[in-house]
Amino acid sequence: MKTTMFFIVFVSFFIIGSAPASVADDIRDHPRCPTCNMDRREYAHSRMLIDYREGPVGFCSIHCAGADLAVNRHKTVKEIFAADYATKRLIPAKSAFWVIGGDRGGVMTQRAKWAFEKRADAEAFVKDHGGGPATYEDAMKATFDDMYADIKAVRKKALDRKAREKS
pTM value? Predict the structure, then answer.
């Protein structure tokens, strides 16, 4: 009986301990994206959290998460979480059903990349808004394929905004 109870407690601790404590309160713990300074609560549907061995870091989008992964390639990634577009809850990015493209504007990117916990939600999104089904690997590859054009567009938008503020 004691062995069974110990096993149950041990397994429960392992399962609960597998996600960083900050997943539950990731927006409170990481209110702004360190890459672009956007409010992660405003972009709760697209946010991501990278759980590095050195500690978790929250981002507004797969674009900013991808940039961080490239710059911090020396860090050990324990897990990557993405917001479920339908519920805004963080889910493991690698097991999500991804949609690339469609008529909904992306966050920090011209070509949107959305994560869904349920295949049915991803399929419904594609039916209603277009885009195509993808895996996490497809979405991250598309992020890097789009990176230069997206950075160029963000920089142009910032310059245009500064020019309007001066006039």
Answer: 0.84
State both tokens at 1. Answer: 């009986």
pLDDT, tens digit (0-9, with 9 covering 90-100), for 113-149: 999 999 999 999 999 999 999 999 999 999 999 999 9
Neighbours of 87 (CB within 10 A): 14
Angle at CA of residue 57, ends 55 and 59, nearest 5°: 170
As a whole number of angstroms, the distance between CA 49 and CA 12 comes to 23
User: Percent helix, strand, coil in the chain (nearest 5)?
Assistant: 45, 20, 35
pLDDT in tens, 3-19: 544 444 334 333 334 45
Q: Categorise residue 45: left if φ over 0, alpha if ψ from -120 to 50, beta otherwise.
A: alpha
* C-alpha–C-alpha distance, residues 54 and 49, integer Å: 13
